[in-house]
Write a structure and sequence with these properties.
Blueprint: H1 4-8, E1 32-40, E2 44-52, E3 55-61, E4 72-81, E5 90-92, E6 100-112, H2 117-123, E7 125-132, E8 136-143, E9 154-159, H3 170-173, H4 184-191, H5 195-199, H6 204-212
Antiparallel strand pairs: 1-2, 1-6, 2-3, 3-4, 4-9, 5-6, 6-7, 7-8, 8-9
The protein binds manganese (II) ion.
């Protein structure tokens, strides 16, 4: 597990995403972290990341997690990310890799359900429990044979039947950031992103409600930025 691919894809002189420290060994005492970042890039997806071996193993889930055990959600494995990435919420500049708005949609800890998680990952059948604010209970990530010629391994993310299973759509019911309570459009507004593009990833019905009642918008996040001086002189 290495961050080489992660770093190659990004220009850290342009993006504010973390560069990541050298991948260390697995932490023994602290719980394993997970994060789900809602990412309105070229297309909307949810990046599910699991701490393992000193990095965040990452899958891009186009439709996001689903609590219905009969639904299988495609999860494309992507490059490992640094653990510091878990704190990233904001804007990746347009034209850069993953350009768009990123929201911390959920976070917490996870536990592997099999005693040998390395073997489970190698086999492509990882049963796990999420202890998040939105994601709870038992799930599985299972690798498919994937498409021939395509380097990215395709996995499926599926809810196990337990007391948390439900047919309610968690992505529609809980669309806001767990750290800032913002929608994508509000993150784009606060961080200088493309609001129109970001809004495309927010629930349409909620945006309609906000248009009718703008008080539903989260107040702008205060930023300690120097005001831009503008001349009051008329331009001749
Ligand atoms: Mn992404």
């Amino acid at each position: 597990m290495t961050l080489e691919t992660y770093r190659k894809k990004r220009r850290f002189s342009v993006t504010t995403e973390p560069q990541g420290t050298t991948a260390g060994g697995a932490r023994k005492t602290k719980a394993l972290a997970f994060v789900v970042q809602k990412h309105r890039a070229t297309a909307l997806h949810y990046d599910v990341r699991l701490e393992w071996g000193g990095v965040m193993l990452s899958w891009a889930v186009p439709k996001g997690p689903c609590y219905d055990p009969t639904v299988k959600r495609l999860a494309m494995q992507v490059e490992d990310h640094p653990i510091e990435y878990n704190k990233f919420e904001g804007i990746i500049p347009e034209g850069e890799y993953g350009g768009g708005t990123v929201m911390i949609w959920d976070h917490g800890s996870w536990t592997p359900e099999s005693p040998d998680a390395d073997a489970a990952l190698k086999k492509g059948d990882l049963k796990l429990t999420f202890h998040g604010k939105k994601l709870r209970g038992s799930w599985v990530l299972v690798r498919t044979r994937g498409r021939p010629g395509d380097g990215k391994p395709a996995w499926l993310m599926i809810k196990h039947r337990d007391q948390w299973a439900s047919t309610e759509d968690v992505t529609e019911l809980a669309p806001r950031s767990v750290v800032s309570n913002r929608l994508l459009i509000e993150i784009a507004r606060d961080e200088g992103g493309d609001m129109r593009k970001a809004a495309d990833g927010d629930p349409r019905a909620l945006l309609q409600e906000i248009l009718k009642n703008p008080a539903l918008l989260a107040p702008p996040k205060l930023r300690h930025k120097k005001a831009v001086w503008r001349s009051k002189k008329a331009v001749s």
